[in-house]
Design a protein that fits this description.
The protein is an alpha+beta fold and 618 residues long. The protein folds into 2 domains: 234 residues, no CATH class; 303 residues, Metallo-beta-lactamase, Chain A (4-Layer Sandwich). The strands form 4 sheets. A 9-stranded mixed barrel has the order 2-3-4-5-6-7-10-11-12. It has a 7-stranded mixed β-sheet with strand order 13-14-15-16-17-18-19. Strand 16, helix 8 and strand 17 form a beta-alpha-beta unit. Helix 12 packs antiparallel against helix 13 and helix 13 crosses helix 16. The longest helix has 23 residues.
Amino acid sequence: MMHRRGSIVFLAAVLTTALAAGQNAAPQASGIDITGSWNAAGGGGGENELVDYAGEPLNEAGRMYALTWNPTMMTTRQQQCAGYEPIRLIERGSRRFWEVRDPYTQKLISIGMYGQITEGTRTIWMDGRPHPPAYAKHTFLGFATGKYDGNVLTVYTTHMKRNWIRTPNGVPFSDQATLVEHFIRHGDRLTYVAALTDPVYFTEPLVTTADMVRATRNPDAWLYACDDGEQLLEQQPDKVPNYLFGQNPYLREHAELHHLPLFAVLGGAVTMYPEILGKMKSATDVEALALTRPSASPMETSRAIDPNPHDGNIHVWPVQGGVYMLIGDDANIAVQIGDQGALVVDTGTGKLADKVIAAIRGLVGDKPIQFIVNTSFHGDHTGGNVKIHAAGADPSLVGSFFDSNFNGFKDAGVGATIIAHQNVLNRMSAPTGKVAPTISDGWPSDTYLKGRRRKYYNDEAVEVFWEPNAITDGDSIVQFRRSDVIVTGDILTTTQYPFLDLANGGSVQGEIAALNNILDHTVYKHLGDDGTLIVPGHGRVCDEYEVAEYRDMLAIIRDRVQAMIKQGASLEQVKAARVTVDYDPRYGANSGPWTTSMFVESVYNSLKQGSVKAAGQR
């Protein structure tokens, strides 16, 4: 039977009881034996009703996220087949565990787990390996390591995607959450205790417990072969269902159905402890309603881990296929390698250009750095152009350019060829007679004007797509088709709100359109995990689920700002309304080059400019 919403005090009591019961068992020398099949004792976990957050330690951001969540969001493509996180994989259906051992030493390498619901397969590494770096990709089940503490198997999990606490009623946990689980066996029963910690949406850990009984046979597969589809034909890709602040039509439904005061169902650590009974009697409806709208507190700074190492070195991470990500010189750098040489996407700030070149040489050997693609003109993506261009060569150009006497230019093919949209060259250079903001050796020499620029390189189709009026008017994404990797530049970052450079052609609508265009080129492997992998401009490796999360966030904030503009709100009033309250602990910043306040201002001004243009067109 599954139990939720406990306190740390309750967790300690459960562990004490389970450990005492486990003394009667005869654990193996390596720990307890949990192999075999197990079913939930007394049935699986129940469903949460809408606006039923009692016993969940939500902070303001978590509560506002849940209250503005519209169930229709589950019809969007990326939500239809999303996988489960570890706790729901335990609470739903049947599950089977097995050991993986070294065939020669019999040393335990890992414990495998198969969950019947969503056909989830999980690996718990038992060989002492470290967790991946912060810039590695996340999955729904995360990366888990375990160890035996006597007759208890303790598991620590990181690198989980943003997901739901329970089958959705809108209550989230973020991709910064970590999970500690304990499996305690006593006879044919297995007690499960877990604590989920989330610095973004919780104020303290959420405790979960469950009992399982040994099954007589392995669980059957349910052939959970989910494929997304067109659920609502009229639904536009840039429209993400959501409720504006204070407009959730189901706000009181659960409370009234169960004769509870509204205050009691809105969550928070206060609802986890017995003292809530006294507060339920004294809390007024006015106090409860105050919890359903953003407070007057200032915008928060992100509590998310910065995945950039900041140690002065370049770190190389294999993405998949022939594509690698280089991290350390601010913006991410992608490198495709093969028999022909290296194709580099973006070059960082240039502060660590020599180390970037050395890292590329370590990947490609004596093959040339032949091509550079710039996704933007911004300096954190082009700062290394000059040095990396000079370190490269384009053999395909040698002897291909001639003077009037058909003599080849001596510098043809010297240096890597830099490819970008024409607007990148326009921003990096200058009109005749003007001083250019950048050195000409770092300018693109191979530009395109519309649609795409394509190449076939290292036995792989490479396509460069223009994304007009997204971050700027010259953004490109780069798709490696055989490797199934897309490099997005700053159209996607996992570290902050998008930098909408309105002065150079950026716009909120163009940014949403660009994110949707990325999603038009992605395919997941199994229930929202893996498949097409994404190298963002800043942050960690992603897949399409994170692109959709970013799109959803931006579309929802756009809708809030647009609704206030229609009501005649000024920029100051929009900022005061804290329209980003549920995303600030993840993407916000109160200081630095791009603050939350600046982001809100860019969305407001972009929408105002769009309204003026639309009025002019009419």
